Structures are given as C-alpha cells and as structure tokens.
Amino acid sequence: MRKSKRTGAPIIAAAARAFAEHGFDVPMADGRRLREQVLAQLFAGRWKPQWDALLVDRRLPLEKRLTQFYAEYRGRVTRVEARLWTRAGLMGMHGPAFSRTLEKRILVPVARELRHEAGVALKRAVSKKEIELVQMLHGAIAFPHTRSHIFDMDVHGRLPELIAMMVRVWLRGAIAETRRLATRP
User: Fold this and answer.
1) What is the phi/psi pair of residue 183, to 5°?
2) Per-residue pLDDT reduced to its tens digit, 62-86
3) By residue range, what is the domain housing residue 123?
4) Are residues 61 and 2 in the same domain?
5) Which of 11, 29, 45 is the last residue of a domain?
6) What pLDDT, in 10s, does the model give residues 2-14?
7) Domain total for the chain?
8) How confident is the model at residue 150, as a pLDDT?
9) Largest CA distance in the chain
C-alpha cells in the first residue's frame, strides 16, 4: 500500500501540472479519477489543525494571529495550485461544501474574534455581512497569487510583508464596521 502511494504521487503531481496549464478537460488516461485526487489534495490537503487554535488564541493580538495564519496558509501557494484553484472555480468545482468549510474554519471564527476585538458582545450568530467583511481580507490576501500566477503581473514586495500590511489596513476598518453592524438588526 505504501509503495502505491509513492508511485501515485508523481502521477498526481504531473496531472496537477497538466490540469493547471491546460484545463481539466486535457485528455489523459483515468482523467476523472486523477482530477478528483488533485482537487481533494488542493482543497482539503493543505489545512493544518493548529490553525483552528491559532485563529482563536486570545493570548496573541488579533493582528498577529491573522498575519501569522495567512502567511502560513497562503505562503506556500505554487503557480500550479493557484492556476488549479482558478480553473476549478471557473468550472464550478469549489461547490457548497468548500464554502461551508471556508466559513466554518476561517470566516466565522475570524468574525467572532473581530467582535471581541471591537468590544462587541453579541450573542446572535455571525451575520452574512460579517462573513462578507472577513471575506474582504481573505480575498485580498489571495490576490497577489492571482496577479503573479494567473495574470503574470509583478507583485511588489514579499508575501509576508504584504500580508502584514493588508491585515493592518483591513483590521482598523473592520473593527469600525463590526461596531456599526452591531447596531443594526
């Protein structure tokens, strides 16, 4: 069993490169199974369990937690991964399950921590507007990879520095908006 996993890894990596550069319809033997394995690895294989704890560890300032999380989460995205991610999205392959996982693992916990940072003590569930507020940061942090790996544009600065800058800029506005949203029904 172990030998077949090692033998399969180079095949899956080659399939990922082909799908990233030429699309998921590229002809290859056993293409559907390979596509499913590539996407499973892309979507679920990157999550580190310690990130769940990091996002809610109030011993660290929220700015530091978000900067560290996103530097680790987005820091090792390759050209192949960025292109696969974009192609999968264009083909509707992310789906509701991915959206639910994104909300559960990242967006809702960050929204709750943002409430805490803003001094907002709401008991109600995180609202869709709060989810959208956190999604603004999440999307902004993904965009340097899109610029670099999809559009072949320059990215000016190292990713960890850019992430720290995005978190600093976003956090101040997000705290104010969280307070404003708390006054709305």
Assistant:
1) -90, -5
2) 999 999 999 999 988 999 999 998 9
3) 48-182
4) no
5) 45
6) 434 433 788 888 8
7) 2
8) 94
9) 59
